[in-house]
# Entry
Amino acid sequence: MTSETRNNATGFTIIELLVVVSIIVIVSAASIPMGLNFVRHYQVMGAAQGVAGQMQMARGQAVKLNTQRGVLLNFNYPGPGQYQWTSLDPNPVTGDWDDPVYPAYAPRNFEEGMTDGVYGAVPAEPNNTKNPDPAAGVMSPHGTPIYMPETVEFEGGGSNALLFRADGSVRAVTASGPSGAGVLNPNGLTWEMRVRDPNTQLTKLITITRNGRVTIEE
# Structure
């Protein structure tokens, strides 16, 4: 085999290399939106799972504490895109309700059929993280404030909190004080709320029944 024949049989031409590079660029560019959609879907699902987990946590606390007045899981509190549970039980010694942290807000015993849905209140920061602090007037325990991912938010709704009771049951209510905007809507004997990515409009529906069963749409 001559030297000229060997040179013609090895390597790639410039045109062939450019074709291969072009194909790689096109395939990569096409896969970027798919990857971004996957990440955003994962973030929305993760946010929904976090909310559902706190619903179960608040229900467990209500049963564990054998709560008298209930445990509130408040949404858009202590700020937009956050959520936290707060016990409504009074001081076991005096029977008073965490005064002066919650001035003028006494929790109400929930009764079926009440049209006035204001039950209890939540404290302003930093008292919402004192768990408990008798010197500051805080006798009831609080959960840790949880933040939604930056790209995910609650969709608007009616009630702004869930009230969990010692028997494990739950009702959607409206909390007073610095509690945030509503997110919950009734649907028969259940309540629904959605988390969403406002950029892509991807959403996940979270449903909770009156006995505290939580589901997330697939």
